[in-house]
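Troubleshooting log. The previous structure file for this entry was overwritten by mistake, so regenerating from the original sequence record. Sequence copied from the archived sheet and checked twice against the printout by T.R.
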Amino acid sequence: MTLEDAFPVRGRKAVVVGAARSGIAAAALLARRGAAVTLTDLRPDAEGVRDFGAAGVTLEMGGHAPETFASADLIVLSPGVPPDQPLVAAAREAGVLVVGELELASRWLVGRIVAITGTKGKSTTTTLAGRMLEAGGHRVLVGGNIGVALSAQVEQSTADTIHVIEASSFQLETTETFHPWIAVLLNFSPDHLDRHATVDEYATAKARIFANQEAADWAVVNADDPAAMALAAGTPATTVRFALDVPLEEGIVIDGPGIVRRGPAGSERLIPLEAVRLKGRHLLADVLAAAAVASIAGVSPGAMTRAVDAFTGLEHALEPAGTIGGVEFVNDSKATNVEAARRAIESFGDGLVVILGGRFKGGDLRDLSAPLVEREAAVVAIGEARDAIADAFRGRVAVHRAVDMAAAVRQAFSLAPPGGTVLLAPACASFDMFRDYAERGRAFKAEVRRLQEEWNATREQ
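Regenerated output below.
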C-alpha cells in the first residue's frame, strides 16, 4: 500500500483556509491527489493567489462561506489561521477532519524528517543543519516555516531524502501523526501570546514535536534551557543535549578551540571555532544544535566544518547593514520576541542604540532593561508598542519615539557615538507597519543606504 492509499483524498471535498505560501502549496497538492479543493481567505486580494491557478481548485476570497466548511470532508489550515476560528471549530465538532498544512504534507512524505523548533534560532539552525547534511552527501530538502512549504516537497520525497523542517508553534499545534526522526528544541520562552491564550498553551504546541517519536528516533535539546529540557523530558527518543554553559559529560559542547561531541568512548572533535563566522553568542548555540543533527546523521567533521566555514548567516539575523561615520548598523528584524531581542543586545558593547517596537506579542519588555542599562544604551521606539516600551523603561533607559523607519534610523544615528552600533532588534511582530519581518528588515537597510547617501553628499560639500 502506498502512502497515497494510506491517506486517500481522491473525490473528497477539501477546504484549505489561508491563501498564503503554505495554503497555496497545500491546495495544489490536494488537487494533484484528486480532491475537489476550495482555497478560501478572508482577504479579497490575497497576494499569493494573483498568479495562482490549478485544475480542481476553486477560489473563495473575501470571506468564508459557512456552507463551504459544513460540507467539507477535510479542512487544512495554513499556519496563520487559528484552529479555534468559529467555522473551523464547528466543522471539527461535526466530525470533519481538521489538520494543518505541515501535518497534511507529512502524511505523504517518503523520506525522513528532521524538525527544528524553538522560540528563537530556528531559521539559522534549519539552514545550517541542511547545509551540513548536504556537505555530508545526503539528499536534503529544506523548508517548512522557511523557504518552500512542505506540501511543495511531497513529489520530490524519496526514501533517501532528509526533509529539514523549521516548525513553528502554529504548525505544530495542528499535528496529529507528524513524526520526526530527529526533533530539535532549541530553547523556550514566552512568545506568540497574541495567538496562544497562555504560555502553557504555547509550550504544549512546541512539545508536540516529540509527540510521535519512538525509541529509534532522536531528540536534540538545549541543556542550558531548563524549560526546553522539561518539555522534552517525556520523549522515548534517544536524547542528545547541547550546551554553551552547562558542563556535559555527554553531548555537544565547546572544548578549547572547537565544538566536540562527548560520549562514553571519549570526545570527537567536530568543528574548530575559527570556522564559525556568525556574530552573537546565541548563534553559536545554533551551530551546536546543527552539529548535533549532522553528527547523528553520520556527517564527517570535515564536511561539517566546510558547511560552517561557508555560512555567514541569514538575512535579518544580526546582518551587517553598513557603517556610517564610524557607526555600525545591524539588522536583526527576525528578533520578534523579547528573548531574541535580549540575545541580540547582549551581542554588543557600549555605544548601542536599539530600535524596538511593532506589534507586541507578549512577554515582559522589562527583561531588556538590565542589558540596556549595562551598555548605557538608548532606545528608539516605533509602531504600536511605542508607549508600552517607554513605560517599561521609564527612569532606567532613554526612550525616543519615531513615527516610521526613516525617522527611527536617523534618530538612532544621531544618538550613537562614533564606534557605536545601531541595532534593529524589535522584540515585536511587524504587522502594524509591514507585511512581515523581512519587509521590515529591508526597509531598515534601505533607510541606512539613504542615510549613507545623505552623509556622503554632506561630506562632499
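The domain at 10-101 is CATH 3.40.50.720 (Rossmann fold). Archived copy saved in two places this time.
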